[in-house]
Amino acid sequence: MAVFNHISFDEHEQIVFCQDKESGLKAIIAIHNTNLGPAVGGCRMWNYESDDEALNDVLRLSRGMTYKNALAGLTMGGGKSVIIADPKLKDREALFRAFGRCIDQLGGKYYSAEDVGVSTTDIMIAHQETPYMAGLEGKSGDPSPFTALGTYLGIKAAAKHRLGVDSLKGLKISVQGVGHVGYYLCRHLHEEGVELIVTDIHQASLDKVANEFGAIVVAPQDIYHQDVDIYAPCALGATVNDTTIPLLKASIVAGCANNQLAEDRHGEKLKALGILYAPDYVINAGGIINVSFEKDYDATLSTKKVEEIYHTLMSIFTQADEQDRTTASVADEMARTIIEAAK
Ligand code: NAD
């Protein structure tokens, strides 16, 4: 397994492999860049098929956090962690305590929080071993509703730019993954009169959005070719790829999932087809923005900052049109300028 020559290695500052025999913890922490401040980014718990798959995920996700935090205007660097384990594991206390001890050894260079497969309860367990955890109960808490708010506003920006509409009323939107963020996103969209088409691999989550929001449920493999205005990827990454792009009928791809494009060139492919792509790390920054208010938590201030996502995306869409470039490359360049200036 290559590390420094890994395809997703991008001058990461530090990569830590953690193992704790007693609890069974196997984790990787990747600190991508700390120019703007200590690295902050969530912890993902997933049944990775190989160590290399986990390493690839944490390298890509941590880089994304550097760019996300920079474009959101936060004084935080980018990092991420992954735990290689079944996210449905029942007895989690020893594992998350061991994880907390690993984080603690980094002495505040990296702060962790929740991500896929990890809950606020897990974060509170790890917090018993280290102060370097964020998204704590009683403080900023669950970031998902804020990620959903930012994603909803980002979808509105995309609809305004691509379809020329101020309201989403009457639009059809497919949502892939109705977990923590997807659920709240569906609620916003339903309240604005959107026709929802949803999928997930977890039946109870689907039943909830079908019952509460009248969403139409389709099988996971059928989500791509739905006749919708907007496709919102809200599950795992790399769902925009060579296989799925030709199936899309939507003219906008805008959702909360991290690393939506399997490769950068898929951004070019979307552009060639006239499909507007809302860069993932810009539209899904609501949660980390909320976490950044952790110290003296103020939900009103946090919400105001999350609302800026609408304008950041508008500026990216406009520049991409003017310069005939992909939205992803415009966002990357904007983020890199901020990161370099902070050196
Ligand atoms: P989650 O685990 O609560 O939800 C993900 C959902 O996707 C689950 O319900 C899962 O069953 C479903 N899913 C998994 N594979 C699927 C498939 N093949 N087809 C359909 N559904 C599938 O996670 P979340 O916190 O809601 O995060 C969703 C995405 O948003 C992730 O990519 C995450 O990294 C990203 N994100 C989350 C936050 C946050 O605040 N939670 C912030 C930024 C980005």
From TrEMBL:
Q: Which family does it belong to?
A: Belongs to the Glu/Leu/Phe/Val dehydrogenases family.
> What protein name is recorded for this chain?
Glu/Leu/Phe/Val dehydrogenase
PROSITE patterns in UniProt: GLFV_DEHYDROGENASE
What are the alphabetically sorted keywords of the record? NAD, Oxidoreductase
Q: What does this protein do?
A: Catalyzes the reversible oxidative deamination of glutamate to alpha-ketoglutarate and ammonia.
Q: Which PANTHER family match?
A: LEUCINE DEHYDROGENASE, VALINE DEHYDROGENASE
Could you tell me which residue ranges the Glutamate/phenylalanine/leucine/valine/L-tryptophan dehydrogenase C-terminal domain spans? 141-343
Q: Fetch the Pfam families from UniProt.
A: ELFV_dehydrog, ELFV_dehydrog_N
Instruction: Read off the InterPro entries from this record.
Output: Aminoacid_DH-like_N_sf (IPR046346), Glu/Leu/Phe/Val/Trp_DH (IPR006095), Glu/Leu/Phe/Val/Trp_DH_C (IPR006096), Glu/Leu/Phe/Val/Trp_DH_dimer (IPR006097), Glu/Leu/Phe/Val_DH_AS (IPR033524), Glu/Phe/Leu/Val/Trp_DH_bac/arc (IPR016211), NAD(P)-bd_dom_sf (IPR036291)
Tree of life domain: Bacteria
